[in-house]
Amino acid sequence: MWGAEGKGVRGGEERWAVPEGAPRLRASPAFDRSCLLDENTFTENFMNRLRPRKTYLCYKVEILDGDARVPLDEKKGFVRNKGANEPGMPRHAECYFLDRIRSWNLDRGLHYRLTCFISWTPCHSCAQELATFLGENSHVSLHIFASRIYRRPGYEAGILTLRAAGAQIAIMTSKEFQHCWENFVDHQERPFRPWVGLEVESQHQCNELQAILQTQAN
């Protein structure tokens, strides 16, 4: 059981040439729009001016071969946390994400890039779990784009732990918000429209993140 998560996503929107030796990929089946994030869910959880209680994590997986990237459409989707008011034990989105990655048994002979777009940066505990996974799986790299910083006890140490483990961490800008809109949202062909204050808040969050990362550099 995966817990609270999306059932699937649309596929086939980004294509690169398949590098020699990479596994052949089947064409993605027709997608069901009901399996995408609806517009309100996306806005309520990723709008960086808001402070939602939930955490959503959208992810995609690519095989790397030099400068080429091969998207694995069947390994693309989203998960969310399970709150205290829901059946079962509360659990963070990152834990569901790690469960899913481990279930794939990714080929250690290939190099994979995992890219996450998350509404909050990982807490200290989840950051440690992600760092441990990276330490055990050198064939996997992790890139995290966060809408906002999760300011709870130990959050700075968690971010530094992730960076030390090799994860790349950045704050989402309009470019990443648009990418999520186009790939993980049932937008009904409507274009992404940046909200008022997006870039100002993004820059504020970015400055804070850089200040945290600078402590590691020093």
Q: Mind sketching the topology for me?
A:
Blueprint: H1 39-46, E1 56-65, E2 68-80, H2 93-104, E3 111-118, H3 124-136, E4 140-146, H4 155-164, E5 168-171, H5 174-184, H6 198-217
Parallel strand pairs: 3-4, 4-5
Antiparallel strand pairs: 1-2, 1-3
Helix pairs in contact: 3-4
Commentary on this structure:
The protein has 218 residues and is α/β, with parallel strands linked by helices. The chain has a single domain, classed as Cytidine Deaminase, domain 2 (3-Layer(aba) Sandwich), CATH 3.40.140. It has 6 helices and 5 strands. It has a 5-stranded mixed β-sheet. Strand 4 (140-146), helix 4 (155-164) and strand 5 form a beta-alpha-beta unit. Helix 3 runs parallel beside helix 4 (155-164). It is an enzyme of class 3 (hydrolase). Residues 51-162 form the CMP/dCMP-type deaminase domain. One of its GO terms (molecular function) is cytidine deaminase activity. Its main location: cytoplasm.
